[in-house]
């Protein structure tokens, strides 16, 4: 089959040739070619996620021990974690497997997203996009690690003692897992602030000077966000989130300044 002929696969379009197109050629491709390629890459990503989730379910015990460790440290020696519905344990296990499956499969999923978008980018855009993807992954994992290793060990003992002597702490498995996973995601997204502002700065949407002038509002906003998202009402735990947000904002100003074009 000659290079100029359409492949009989995928409705007459060869997705491997689509990947190799230049931005000018990519713009001239019919919409159906892009849709066929998008469908294939979504299916590949879905299969990778399901396979990684199945592997996570198969090796669930170490993941479960890792996730429950902060809560177990807050319980007395005889303390137990309960489930209160017949199907609760199964569906909670499934949720854990799906979340960790998405984490394990994320490099492959990001590759598929990059392979779909890259043909439409110019070389200078690709040079910016590659470190951007890496920085996004590192920032998210850094935020999740910050929550797990620094916030959780302080938050859960505080919450376990909050009821005083009148109430006995009996954690429910489903509620804890949902809460812990949500906090990990929230902290991960909060740590994406420098990446988002770097993109905005590269696109010319914001300037370092503008961010510097907005510093007082950003500091107040960081403490408001910390007060809303922190699982405990004490000031110390709120500072654990607010201070990193302020630091990340300051880092964002520096990054945007470095990315600004010089006269």
Automatic annotation (TrEMBL):
It is found in: Cell membrane; Membrane. It is a multi-pass membrane protein. The chain crosses the membrane at residues 90-111, 132-156, 176-205, 217-233, 239-259. Belongs to the TatC family. GO terms for molecular function: proton motive force dependent protein transmembrane transporter activity. Part of the twin-arginine translocation (Tat) system that transports large folded proteins containing a characteristic twin-arginine motif in their signal peptide across membranes. NCBIfam families: tatC. It comes from Thermosulfurimonas marina. The keyword Disulfide bond does not apply. Forms a complex with TatA. The lineage of its organism: Bacteria, Pseudomonadati, Thermodesulfobacteriota, Thermodesulfobacteria, Thermodesulfobacteriales. This is Sec-independent protein translocase protein TatC. Pfam families: TatC. GO terms for cellular component: TAT protein transport complex. GO terms for biological process: intracellular protein transmembrane transport; protein transport by the Tat complex. Keywords: Cell membrane, Membrane, Protein transport, Translocation, Transmembrane, Transmembrane helix, Transport. InterPro entries: TatC. The keyword Hydrolase does not apply.
